[in-house]
Specification:
Helix content is 53%, strand content 14%. By secondary structure, the chain is α/β, with parallel strands linked by helices. The radius of gyration is 25 Å and the shape is globular.
Length: 526
């Protein structure tokens, strides 16, 4: 479908009906008790609104109160404007991407040019999902790859499940200690699959596990993924394509989708289905917005600062050159990308960090508030650690869009957003309750903070519907439309609170270990 044609028609329809809708709404509003709030008339033309009168009714005459009203409204307005600009970039990019996507029908001879990949799967207490994850990896359609599972000192039967399912045997593997890690107890090879190996090591966290996997990896590229995730057969081909197109590519990230209640069989992804849990349904919309617009919008500027730890592809020697993953952060997925930007730009190296919009990885999402709280607190702390340790990228003369646009955005609108946005909601609502904020000011704030947020989520959902259409049934689309509402009213504010706790955790609490985080449920064949 032609996105530009669709957008043009939508805009024409909107402009053609705007006068009628607004005129009708205000005609009915005059009959309501609230009509006194609207002191302007409507004559079918926006110019008829007395803007000065409207603004004077919104902004308090008290200097301090007026300042904070302006501050919070402008903050949300700028945030939404940035998202809309990223959406414009993303829509243009994905249109060209969908028009030119022909990887699945490439001739066999063409695929041999893809470089071999080592797939690294860190696992701590993943006995309920690890076997299906490995089974899905063994079905990958890729010319040459190996799978390395890193058992990070699990206290459950993760290693036992692997040994039984894949017939593992101890093997005297050459292990080069290029990156320092916790001691490795044993390396296992599978009797059934020549490209499957398992590292059993003492617990050191996810970063330590990835470093151990890199030490054992035989191939020039490595893919890191979570043990509770499922890849599609074409996932590696899609993610490796940027490395084939541009030899300067050092990393590539892919879209992550919600796996909950999808149809699986023997670890093989069969069909996308909308989660039954309302909390997970809202996260479907959240992920669409974050990946299809947020990350896809930064990639064409070579300013992408985050590659999801659930699925990313990296050039091994570059990661080793910058020092591997840090053990003193729980946001290793973002920190390594930001550090690569800083390191390579300071040395005037040509490089590219790419993003693939296809739904290439499916992962489990939290289905209860406690699990969601723990996840978002970790993410916020990881964000803070990554930005703090790489402040040298900010406004560095060599940092390009990454240091002059993406980094300030991350600091102002991601790192500090829980404080500012929560303060905005509390200030405006309490101000209205205690009568030092007018109803006009509150409405203006809610339109900017919630109304534009819904618009952004709706655009993300629209882009999904006209591109990949993973959720095709009318009931699924209707459910996602309701999820858009709850995503911006209730869920968003709750997540802001969880992120605020994560920020406090970063400031006041010593680092927690990766092993303390537990998954809430297992994958099952459905």
């Amino acid at each position: 479908m032609d996105l530009s044609y669709l957008s043009s028609n939508l805009l024409d329809a909107a402009s053609g009906q705007a006068d009628v809708l607004v005129s009708t709404a205000l005609t009915h509003a005059k009959a309501l008790p609230l009509a006194g709030w609207f002191d302007f008339s409507w004559s079918g033309d926006m110019s008829a609104i007395d803007l000065n009168e409207w603004v004077s009714g919104v902004i308090s005459q008290q200097p301090v109160v007026g300042f904070f009203q302006w501050f919070f409204i402008i903050y949300f307005l700028v945030l939404c404007t940035i998202y809309l600009l990223l959406e414009m970039v993303a829509i243009s990019y994905i249109k060209n991407y969908m028009d030119n996507r022909s990887l699945n029908v490439l001739p066999r001879a063409y695929k041999k040019y893809f470089r071999p990949i080592s797939v690294l799967v860190p696992a701590f207490n993943e006995m309920g999902s690890i076997v299906q994850t490995v089974q899905s990896l063994l079905r990958l359609n890729y010319p040459e790859f190996e799978i390395i599972v890193i058992n990070d000192g699990s206290t459950d039967d993760t290693l036992g499940q692997l040994r039984m399912a894949f017939d593992l045997q101890p093997f005297a593997e050459a292990y080069r200690d290029r990156l320092k890690t916790m001691p490795v107890r044993q390396v296992y090879n599978s009797r059934r699959y020549a490209n499957l190996r398992v590292i059993d090591k003492e617990n050191g966290g996810k970063s330590d596990s990835l470093n151990a996997g890199i030490n054992l990896a035989r191939y020039p590229l490595y893919c890191c993924m979570d043990a509770d995730s499922i890849l599609l057969p074409e996932s590696l081909l899609l993610l490796a394509k940027p490395f084939l197109e541009d030899t300067n590519t050092v990393a590539a990230g892919g879209t992550v989708r919600i796996l909950n209640d999808c149809k699986l069989f023997g670890g093989f992804f069969v069909k996308a289905r909308l989660p039954k849990s309302m909390l997970a349904q809202i996260q479907v919309v959240e992920y669409l917005r974050a990946f299809l617009f947020g990350r896809l919008g930064w990639a064409p500027l070579n300013a992408l600062l985050i590659i999801s730890g659930a699925f990313g592809l990296f050039h091994k020697e570059t990661v080793i050159e910058v020092g591997g993953y840090r053990n003193d952060t729980i946001g290793e997925d973002m920190e390594i990308v930001v550090r690569m930007h800083r390191y390579l730009r300071n040395r005037d190296r040509d490089f590219r960090i790419a993003f693939v919009p296809d739904p290439v990885c499916w992962t489990l999402a939290p289905e209860n508030l406690n699990a969601l709280k723990n996840q978002r607190m970790r993410w916020q702390r990881g964000l803070a650690e990554s930005l703090w340790r790489n402040l040298g990228l900010l406004f560095n003369p060599k940092s390009g869009f990454a240091g002059w646009l993406a980094m300030p955005y991350m600091i102002i609108f991601e790192l500090f957003s829980p404080v500012i946005e929560l303060a905005g909601f509390v200030f405006m609502i309490l101000g209205f309750v205690f009568d030092f904020i007018s109803i006009k000011a509150l409405i203006a704030f809610l339109v900017v903070s919630i109304g534009l947020g819904m618009l952004i989520s709706l655009l993300a959902l629209l882009l999904e519907i006209i591109s990949y259409r993973l959720y095709k049934r009318p009931l699924e689309v209707a459910t996602l439309l309701f999820a858009v509402v709850f995503d911006n009213i209730g869920y968003r504010q709750l997540v802001l609170f969880f992120r605020f706790l994560g920020l406090l955790n970063w400031i006041f609490v010593p680092k927690r270990r990766w092993g303390q985080v537990r998954h809430q449920h297992n994958m099952a064949n459905t």
